[in-house]
Each structure stands twice: as structure tokens, then as C-alpha cells.
From TrEMBL:
It is an enzyme of class 3 (hydrolase). Monomer. Associates with 30S ribosomal subunit, binds 16S rRNA. Signal peptide: none annotated. InterPro entries: G_CP_dom (IPR030378), P-loop_NTPase (IPR027417), Ribosome_biogen_GTPase_RsgA (IPR004881), RsgA_GTPase_dom (IPR010914). It comes from Actinoallomurus spadix. It is found in: Cytoplasm. The keyword Acetylation does not apply. Its main location: cytoplasm. GTP binds at G208, P209, S210, G211, A212, G213, K214, S215, T216. One of several proteins that assist in the late maturation steps of the functional core of the 30S ribosomal subunit. Helps release RbfA from mature subunits. May play a role in the assembly of ribosomal proteins into the subunit. Circularly permuted GTPase that catalyzes slow GTP hydrolysis, GTPase activity is stimulated by the 30S ribosomal subunit. Keywords: Cytoplasm, GTP-binding, Hydrolase, Metal-binding, Nucleotide-binding, Ribosome biogenesis, RNA-binding, rRNA-binding, Zinc. Residues 110-266 form the CP-type G domain. This is Small ribosomal subunit biogenesis GTPase RsgA.
Amino acid sequence: MSSTFPDPVSPSPEDVLRAYGWGEADENTFTAHRSAGLSPGRVARVDRGHVTVVTANGWVRAVWSAPAGAPPAASPCTGDWAAVRLGARPELAALLPRRTAIVRSSASRTSHAQVLAANVDTVVVVVSLAASAPAGRIERMLALAWESGAVPVIVLTNADRPERPITVVRDEVAALAPGVDTLPVSSVTGEGMDVLTASLTGTIVLLGPSGAGKSTLGNALLGADLLATGEVRARDGKGRHTTVHRELIRLPGGGVLIDTPGLRAVGLHDSRSGIEQVFAEIEDLAADCRFSDCGHVSEPGCAVRAAITAGDLPQRRLDSYRKLLRESDWAASREDARLRTERDNQRKAISRHLRATYRFRNRQS
């Protein structure tokens, strides 16, 4: 088990759930489970067939079994609230509805969704000032964050050793993120950490590629070296994947932190609303196009193309917007097609079962 268990600050038993984010709405949702003799808990870590859950009675390691045919997104995830059957062999009996969820397309490129973290309030998109960060990757992570229902914050790490002037990078990144705070910090010198801490609320998740400084930033927020860190290669700015599990840990000043493994790929899964939020300036311009279904290609009266011609909107920005929308819509259509296929297969299986039953009855008569 990780060295982050038990948590560094142990609350009293009566306050433990509240310390991990439990509220009145959760209590109301849990009424039926409590009547069934189950106890509430929050999933802190998921391993194969087991989950580590924090309950009012302390940390427990519970077993769980996925229902037959259940999609991967229905499996427990770090941050989930759950109904736990305590005893000699604790068992995770049910998951409560997720208030928010960070969902991406699975790395296998199937139509299945993968939940990275649940019931998140703030998504910290981590970008290193010590290495170049592709604009497209930042836009993808922001779309993922907005789609989740949480509030994104961009943190520019390694402010003590920037590759380029901090103000230049900050302005470039801020242009990719309308309405999102962009904060340069240094986990080494402490620069900007007070401003960042004041911006974070509730359950906080760190997202970013390997080597961006997520675990180092997490340790600075925790006030202790609880998260493993690794060296970053000088030739390409990439780091080793020192975080291999998503873990939920209490913050000493209140709230909880979820550290995630570095994201090699950020596939979007039915994330149209998140994309529209990231590219809000294009959505605003499109409202002034002559045609409501303008494709922003060669249509007359296109306000988006006019902004590009005038130099007010970069062509790269429109290209990225289109690319992410195509990817999101493709994933959504694949999901719909998969669900239709599963329903058809279920109907066929039922029909085969009924025909076999009728044949058996006919033979007995």
C-alpha cells in the first residue's frame, strides 16, 4: 500500500467523512443504503478487484465485482462516494451518483469512456515552464476539465527555471484559456504558492503530462514529500511515470487532492460542451455569422473567417477547434453505435432463449 496511507492529518471519527467532502446532499442520497445497513465511504485508490476506502471507522480495503456487461465507466474510481458493507471481509456494494467526473476516451481507442477522477471541484492543468508545451495539448486538457463540470485552473510550474520569459508564456497560455486563471508557481522557492492555494477549493485533481511537475506540486500543497517524484530528461523535458495510481489524500488546510499518472494521450469522449467553453471566442464570433449552420470555410458573411483575415483570430485556433470537435463527435457516434449493437445482441439472445424454451416445451407435450 502507498506510503500516503494513512493520511497525514487524522480527523476525529465523527468528522472524517466531512473532511473528505461529504455533505448534506450526499447524506440525502445515501438514505436507502443506510437503511440497508451499509456505510458511506470515499474511494481513495483502486487496484484490481480491490478498493481502498475511507469511512467514518477508518481506512478499509474492500473487494468489488463489476456486474456482467457493465461499461468500464461504471467501475469505482478515485473520488467516488460508495456504499460499503463492513465486516470481516469489507465489500463495496454500490456507487453513489457522480456529481462531476473527468472522462476521456480509453487509451485503446475503443468507444468506451475512462473515468480519471470523480466528484472533483477544481482541475489543476499543470504546464511546465521548463519545457515547451504544445498548445493543442493544453486545449485538450482544458476541454476535459470543463466537460467534467469542475472549474479549471492552469498552473505554470518551474517558475524558478523557465525556458522562456514567464510573462510571455503566461500570456500565450492565457490566450488558449478564456476565463481560466493562469498562475506561475515554483515548488522550490514557494513563488506563487499562496495565490494558488487561495484559488483551490474542495476536491482538487492534478492533470498533465509526465514531467510537468504534478507530484512535486502536490507535495508542495501537502507540505510533505508524500508523492513520488522523478528526474526529467534534459533532451526533451519528459519525465518518468512516477505516479502509477490515482490517489486521494487530505490537504492540511482543508480539501483533498487527487494525483494522477502522467497523461500520454488525452482522447476526448463526447466533450462538445467542454470544447465550446475552451474556444469561447469562436463560439461568440459564430453567433454573428450570416448562416446559423456556417462551417467557417467559404460561406459568405462568416464572422469567424473575417476575424482570421483581420488577424484577430489565429488560423491554428480554428483548426484545433475543428479537430477536437471531429474527435469528440466521432467518439460519441462510436458510443451510440456500440450501445445499439449491445441492445441488438441482447434482443437476439433473448429471442434465442425464448425459441429454445418453446422447442423444449413442444417436445414435452
